[in-house]
Amino acid sequence: MTTQKTDDTLSSEHQTRIQKVGVSFSPTFLGYLLLIIFGAVVLAGLQHQYWYGEFGYHALSELNDELAKQQKINAAQQAVNDTLRADVRDLKSGLGAIEEHARLDLGLIKSGETFVELSVAPMVSDREVPYGVDGASATEPVDGLIDDDMGENAFTGVSGDTGE
Sorted alphabetically, which keywords does the UniProt record give (predicted)? Predict the structure, then answer.
């Protein structure tokens, strides 16, 4: 019988241990647990706001990129402005700059100088038709320039026979 009591005693002790091992939280433990969970949620929210928020890290890096691009544009425009200021200063100070502009922009030629103009038009062979020109007008460019009734050039009004 002693063996049976031992078995009964063991089974009752085992049942009491199972009941003791069950989860039971004290009010202070629950308070600390809720405080830790709340702190983790607030920390996660602040991290999200820092990285992805309206004024967060990514928005700051995008603004820095835009700022760098604008500074490059401003530097290029400042160089153009400096060139224009120097040009205005030269125009106000003497006739050399005015003559240079007249030569470049208006084609001024002094007496005794020879004027040579180089064509910048693209070279086109006789068989090729330039882009944007239809074939009929490219093969017969003088049609319609001379009026058969009057014998005058349509653009200048000068007669081809008399030289008037």
Answer: Cell cycle, Cell division, Cell inner membrane, Cell membrane, Membrane, Transmembrane, Transmembrane helix
State which amino acid sits at residue 103. Answer: R
Residue at 32: amino acid letter:
Y
Neighbour-count burial for 27-66, b at 16+ CB within 10 Å, e otherwise? eeeeeeeeeeeeeeeeeeeeeeeeeeeeeeeeeeeeeeee
Place of tokens 């004290």: 26
CA distances from 51 to 37, 38, 54, 62, 77 (A): 21, 20, 9, 12, 35
**Dihedral sign, Cα of residue 11, residue 12, residue 15, residue 16:** negative
For the chain, strand residue ranges (E) read none
CA-closest candidate to residue 47, choices 58, 61, 36: 58
State the Cα angle at 131 between 125 and 133, rounded to 5°.
95
